[in-house]
Amino acid sequence: MAKQSGKSEGGGPAVLFLIFLLAALLKGLWAPEVAERAADSAGGLEVVDMTGRLVHLDGPARRAVLLTPLSWHYLTVTRSDESIIMVPPYMKHEFAESVLGRIFPALAAKPVSIFDTKSAALFSAEQSLLMNPDVILSWDYLARDLEKIKFRGLIKITGDGRYKEKLYEVLGELTGQSERVEQMWARYRANESALFAKIPAEAPEKTLIVIGNDNFALWRGQPYKKYAADVKKLRARNMAEKISNTSGPLNMETLLQLDPDFIFINPFSSYFTAMTTADIYAHPVLRRLKAVSAKRVYHMPLGAARLEGPYEDYLFLLWSALVMRPELDLELDLRSAVRETYLEAFGYEMSEDEIDAWLRFEENKFSAGYARLGRPR
Amino acid sequence: MFNRRDYKIERMIMSDHKFKQSKIMIPVLFAALAVLMLLSLLIGRYPVSAGEAFHIVFVSPFVEQAATEDTRWIVVQILRLPRILLATMAGLGRAMAGGAMQGVFRNPLVGPEILGVSSGAAFGGVLAIFLGFGELPQIAASAFAFGCLALVLAFILAGAARQHGVIGLVLAGLIIGGFFGSATGLLTYMADPETKLPNIVYWLMGSFAAATYDQVAFMAAVSLVAMPPLLGLSWRINILSLGDADAKALGVKINFLRWLIVVLVSLVVAAQVAVSGGVGWVGLIMPHLARMLVGPDHVKLLPVSSLLGGIYLLLMDDLARSLTGGEIPIGLLTSMIGTPVFAFFFIKLHGKGWSND
Amino acid sequence: MTENLSPPAPSGFALETRDVSFAYAKAGKVLDGCTVSIKAGGVFAVLGPNGCGKTTLLKIFLGLLKPSAGWMKINGEITFVPQLFQVTFSYSVLDMVLMGRAKKIGLFSRPAAPDIEAAQSALACLGVADLAARPFQELSGGQRQLVMLARALTAEAEILILDEPASALDLKNQFLLLTWIKRLSRERGLTIVFSTHLPQHALTAADEALLMSSGGRHSAGPIREVMSEEKLFELYGVPLKFINFDYQGRPVESLVPVFAGT
């Protein structure tokens, strides 16, 4: 009669599987460890990255791979693109569209990592070993394979890293520019306070929304957290604060209900939206909004990329104040401020045409009060 | 549309020759997998010669205090080998699971995802990231826990409806899976697009890039617990696939057996999602291919399907990490490459293995 | 309510039921107080028009359904040959027959040489050994029934239950199958229970029969006693007549329906 045995007999395949799995298990349990590499020279640099990790470098970064949208901040800190050896592909857009490309013409030719997820580049560990940079700046969740091999120059950046002073601190330490970073921020804070001092506390509050993409998603203030807070000091309120989703399509009725005083369109056209003020003015539904009828729709300025950082942030605030508070005679010369800023930051002389482009003057000139920001006759 | 050539191929496939052929197929596939694993040690952007690679893997662990500073050692031992092991095990597990599920549920459209375990595990991972526990072990633990939870919930649901039959299981799985799927969607919607969302999306796409030896050990342990019993049960799956009434009449305890298989499959699936995020398609397609090659007898089908899955996923991961300087998400590759390959086999082998009743 | 006793009861019955009743939900009672004793080693026919509960009774024998009242006793291993067979996968005939060994093969085991031998000899016994490698789905109805019968034989059970085995077959195969039923019972001492709606089948193969009419009325006993012309007329509403004649020197008894005009 037939056998009644327990385990599978005639299970030749099962045995082979067992052997393989056992081998894998043993290998997994008796795993080799990567040794920590000590810093080579005594004159090494210690940097604490944004997740609190201590990173030992031999010296200020000379070969940097930027895998996050930080090129602008990095360049602000170093004033030079020499040490950048690789950028993510979407940066090419920013170089092409903005004055960044003209300040740093060599950037357009830098190698790009092939893949990105629109917010970062996926870069293989082996590739990074081949290129042998001293420093790789990467989002923390994409850096796992670099962590595995204990790559010495890995600087992990966390998500809200686009604006914080913490980021600049890290960049400053990385590149040996800590002093300059401190000075930048000190001056920025001074300018900021001076501007806010000009806004009387009893000025009537203005409301505003910032349109983030073609679906009319509203920017809540993330990533422009600081912008939201600053805007309050200009006695204006970003009405999207209470709205939870910042990237999905917006219900039009919400827009009609909010009925803000001002409508801004986000600055990065190729990435998020190709919308212009003309589109808004012509939109059949939006015609009812008071911002539209009073011609208070503006496309935010296009700086050298993202209008962030100690230099551009202040310019952005200036612009916001001039646009939103025309009734106050603020005696601010935006054009001069723009010219001086880029001259000081990068030694770059902006022409009147470039300043117009920065202001998006051709597009915005049909909106209320913008003509006075035109070039002097 | 009957033509000479179809007839000939059909006779060839259906002949006795084929039964003997399938006896050597399993060792051949094992050999192919072994060869592929060895070759994978050499695939990658960083140049490592064959001699160096084999020395690093097979000699250095036993011989010396290994040169663990040497870049090539790091590349082979830390970057490549864990990935190779993990991708192989993931493929082996999922493909075997898919074969078992198709037999138990008597349905060609079934993959190991059907019981909602995949969705539950995906939710677990996303939840961990959403709540700020972004470390790999935390994500893996959460994913595995929620994968198992999904199964338990499906079991309770089926029990409460007193429907332990096939339809009951499928519906319970759909409900639970759907629930976790929408919960995942909700978390994705609410996630901070700057700090959390990209992390979530990237994890969901699946990747072996972060493979560590801890994960290898975990996956191996779970596979050791689940896969040999599945192989042992493979003959009984034949009987289950006849239908409830017939299987019962043949003396098989259908509900117990079905749940046992489901539990084993779920362990494998939950573990795989926990270590590498979502990797679909392998469990659905490989059993079909295997069925075309060796027929529907699950005793042969499960090992062959499993081996095909291991080979396939390993190959996909090799491509993912070496085609470009970046990392291609593996979920994309498996569907992009898998679909035409499968279409080719489907045409060549006339979809053999299924009854035309 | 149902029991499977061993050692065998001294009565020599393979299967006994007492007062078994069953009703499907929302339908009326299909079985009402059914009492039947099936002798070991004989062929037993369950006869009745369609819808009178034959399959239900068989399912109760097999333990697939639970009666709402009454009890049942089975002495021995029991196995089943279904009426129609659809299969999802293209298993070979040998694969199908091997599945009959389910009770004899351990949970984590697979068929070994003895199992394969049993399967092959069952196929050979029924004269269909050459079909072993063919896919089951390619077989004709008659061949499928024989293969299913082989599967039942492979199980090496003492009791075989067949659900309308000859009903979907052509004339020649009907005869073939019924002959096999009789032979197997004689040669191997198997208890065979089969259901049919054609009284000729019962007459051909069975020793005893249970006549079931709708509403649960039934009568059981040796073939010639229970299948009288009156009882059959009551059951079917069509007059039937026994006729005797010589065929090639042998006396033959047959049952013919009387249609108007013939």
What is the end-to-end distance of chain B?
18 Å
Beta percentage of chain A is: 5-15%
Q: What is the chains' assembly state?
A: heterotrimer
Q: Figure out the total of helices of chain A.
A: 16
Let me know the average pLDDT of chain B: 85
Beta percentage of chain B is under 5%
Tell me roughly what share of residues is in helical segments of chain B. over 70%
Could you please describe the fold and organization of this structure?
With 377 residues, chain A is of the alpha/beta class. Chain A has 16 helices and twelve strands. Chain A has a four-stranded parallel sheet with strand order 4-3-7-8, with no helix packed on it. In chain A, strands 10-9-11-12 form a four-stranded parallel sheet. In chain A, strands 1-2 form a two-stranded antiparallel ribbon. The longest helix of chain A has 20 residues, at 178-197. The model of chain A is unreliable at 1-9 and 116-120 (pLDDT under 50). The two termini of chain B are 18 Å apart. Chain B has a domain at 4-107 and 279-349. Chain B is 76% helix and 0% strand. Chain B contains 15 helices and no strands. The model of chain B is unreliable at 6-17 (pLDDT under 50). Chain C contains eight helices and twelve strands. Chain C has helices at residues 54-62, 93-98, 113-125, 141-154, 171-188, 199-205, 223-226, 229-236; strands at residues 2-3, 13-23, 29-39, 43-47, 69-74, 78-81, 159-162, 191-196, 208-212, 218-222, 240-247, 250-257. In chain C, strand 7 (159-162), helix 5 (171-188) and strand 8 (191-196) form a beta-alpha-beta unit. Chain C starts with a strand and ends in a 5-residue tail after the last strand. Chain C has a six-stranded mixed sheet, with helices on both faces. In chain C, strands 1-5-2-3 form a four-stranded mixed sheet, with helices on one face. Classes of the chains: A alpha/beta (377), B mainly alpha (357), C alpha/beta (262). At the A-B interface, helix 1, strand 5, strand 6, helix 5 and helix 6 of A face helix 2, helix 4, helix 8, helix 9 and helix 14 of B.
